[in-house]
Specification:
Layout lengths: L11 H13 L12 H8 L3 H13 L3 E3 L5 E3 L20 E2 L14 H13 L11 H13 L7 E4 L2 H12 L5 E6 L3 H9 L3 E8 L2 E2 L1 H9 L4 E5 L12 H12 L5 E5 L20 E6 L1 H4 L6 E5 L1 H12 L7 H13 L4 H21 L11 E5 L3 H10 L2 E2 L1 E2 L10 E5 L8 H11 L10
Parallel strand pairs: 3-13, 5-6, 5-8, 8-9, 9-10
Antiparallel strand pairs: 1-2, 4-11, 6-7, 10-11, 12-15, 14-15
Helix pairs in contact: 1-3, 2-3, 4-12, 6-11, 8-9, 13-15, 14-15
Amino acid sequence: MLGEYRIEGRRAAEISASVERAVGEGMLAPGELLPPLRELAVELGVNPNTVAAAYRTLRDRGVIETAGRRGSRVRQRPASTPRELLRVEAPEGGRDVASGNPDPALLPPLDEALAAAARKARRGPVLYGAPAVDTELERLARAAFTEEGVPDGPIALTSGALDGIERVLSAHLRPGDAVAVEDPGWGSLLDLIPALGLRAVPVAVDDDGPLPEDADRALREGARALVVTDRAQNPTGAAIGEARARELRAVLAGHPQVLLVEDDHGHGIVDLPLRPLAGVTTHWALVRSVAKAYGPDLRLAVLTGDAVTVDRVLGRQRLGQGWVSHVLQDAVLHLWRSGAVDPVAVAASYSRRRDALVGALRERGIAAHGRSGMNVWLPVPDETGAVARLLRAGWAVAPGARFRLASPPGVRLTVSSLSMDEIGTVADALASATVPVPSGRYD
């Protein structure tokens, strides 16, 4: 137990810091069993309650997990170890299809939008006490939500989708609460949940999104929140259709106390309609980022939800960040008004490449998934081997471990950097590097 490392400290904060430091420096490995709290209390000469408080802090920070009589262990993936570290660098002369970035050629130029925002700021700079959300941006965002069937609710702005999701979860949940999440799902969200001291409960997905029976199981087992991706699900490309939305809304109707969080980061890059689930539970939020359609560096997402949830988000935001820069708001507003992005053309560009790759793999006897967005998910029996073989062939793909909790191995490819002429080449490389896995759900 612990090998050569000795936990130190007399106060709970010192003990927890000693463990957290050792985990961060690699001296305590994932899965390492920590001493029983009474044993460590005797060793350190402190009250057992002090060690218990230290272990509770470590659990809340996502560093360790406790399993009753089986003791406390370092998490297999501590919150201090982001999944982004599970990356593969493209070899010299090779191709990177792992990044998850949008196609730069489809992003609008920002010079005129930022110049227009700067001119407005010069005429009347935003000062303390100004409204957090630009009135015109709020009006346009609300109108778009209403047109797509999203229930009426106030508008807030956050610094991207993940920031919005974090603020909503923090507004309602407390350390130790369980959150139902898609598996496979967005790696950053899977990192965020333990970092907030929350516990992720996996929900299996297929091409239509979360499986209703799995979502119902997770909620019946005590999950206090459900996070779903409406379209362009990362990494699988799943999109919730009309029938699946109806089924999921029926599940949520049986759990009206659950917090529903919807991520519509694919807005502007997909050609499938939004099928919102909101309006069934008492507390809900839908967050829509501009990153994929207008550029990740804009750091702006529109959030709507029930009045209590949005009020809590805005209240906490006022005490920290304050507001999202009005310069960025005005730049986004300029882009919206000017029609700088043609969502139909953008969606068609991604769809052509994604559908061509999925089709080419199917012709080679390989079942891949990619119903919407810019990613293709390929189940494989041996993830490490597939990644290594593709790397030797000159292709860097994203390891599925970045996106999984309990689901089986896979790899993710982003089609943004691919031309149509390259589809056959990458499909051949994938066929040579993988063994077919039956199609269907991703578990």
